[in-house]
Amino acid sequence: MFVTHHGENKIVRKYISIVLLLVSECFHSSYSRAQAIDTVATYSLSAYIDAYGASYTDQVGYGNFQKFPTVSPRNNEVGLNTFQLAARYEGDRIRAIATLHVGDIAQSSWSRTYPLIQEAHIGFRILKNLWIDAGFFRTHFGTEFLLPVENITSSVAIATYYEPYYESGVRLNFDPTKRLEINIFLLNGYGIYEENNKRKSFGAGVTYSVSDYIGIGYTNYIGNDAPDSIAVSQLRIAQNIFINYQRNKWKVQVGADLYLQQHADINNSNSSATAYSALATISYHITPAFSVYARGEIFNDQNGYLSGIITDVKGKQTGYKLWGATAGLEYKPTDNSYIRLEGRKLQMDNDQEIFRYNEENRNYRYEVMVNAGISFSLLKGIQTRN
């Protein structure tokens, strides 16, 4: 999608106007309500920027996104993954967050209806350690996060690409101890903000800190996102488990997904079908500023209900099956910034030649990307009731 400079200026002006209005309203209403409700409240405005340069051995044409587009999705270009502003309010009984973003991640991976909104929700405390939040959320499901600043790697695994990035609904949040967190969701659907049928979906997430070094978690999703016009049930049950370890110079992340969907078998539409994926990422700090990292991943959706159905070189109908290997070097000039050089190979099944390079169809792709990012606070404050 090409935009003129005049169009870009209009988008930027519109974005800034929305942010200023949002921040003004948020702080004004938060201040007035805090006087009556919250004894002590904190508020903040923060920003995050990630820029990149990337090259892929897959010819998709100038101006187009690569296959599996999320982070650094344009070939042989210098681009902006994201520029985002986040306003937060934390009180005794009320909390809220609103994050707006622009860039290639917003264009390639976000809602077409609400492309500027990364998340926006408000919550109320019901009891001690029990909150209810409603609005637009970033996804609760999966092992990796979405943004480079949140992950060991800059790119995300293919499994993460097919997981939902965002969701809308109501969340019940309960933290019975400092080590245990439980979230239960009532959602519109899998990776959507706006509802597409009369049914609701459900999700849950549980994380537990085993020690100061090890954390484990489980997330799931249960829902049928087929249009109401489809009579047969396409109920999807997605489950994810992950383990995080961090101590001294080492950081390790391991996770796996398992999907089951009704009436999704390619060869027998009356049967259910499964899909699975797994990843393992490791990082080692050579010095406080330099670290090296690597990730291995597999993804198998042979029935294509996540990745879509293709015809391979032998004429067989199938979904994607692949593995990938990633390696990179990170330099942190400051605690809130990073520069990364990263390479990855994606290897499809032998007969799935979905990439094209030097006028040849191929079943593998090489990627190289350089990312530079920084996050910082624009405003912080504490207000108390008189």
Explain how this protein is built.
The protein has 386 residues and is mostly beta strands. It has one domain (46-380): Porin. The chain contains three helices and 20 strands. Strands 1-2-3-4-5-6-7-8-9-10-11-12-13-16-17-20 form a 16-stranded antiparallel β-barrel. Strands 14-15 form a two-stranded antiparallel ribbon.
Element layout with pairings:
Blueprint: H1 5-36, E1 40-56, E2 77-90, E3 94-102, H2 104-109, E4 117-127, E5 130-138, H3 158-162, E6 166-174, E7 180-187, E8 201-209, E9 214-223, E10 236-247, E11 250-261, E12 273-285, E13 290-300, E14 310-311, E15 317-318, E16 321-331, E17 337-348, E18 355-357, E19 360-362, E20 364-384
Antiparallel strand pairs: 1-2, 1-20, 2-3, 3-4, 4-5, 5-6, 6-7, 7-8, 8-9, 9-10, 10-11, 11-12, 12-13, 13-16, 14-15, 16-17, 17-20, 18-19
Shape: globular
Instruction: Give the helices and strands as they follow along the chain.
Output: HEEEHEEHEEEEEEEEEEEEEEE
> Roughly what fraction of the amino acids lie in strands?
over 45%
Count of alpha and pi helical runs:
3
Q: Mind telling me the CATH superfamily name?
A: Porin
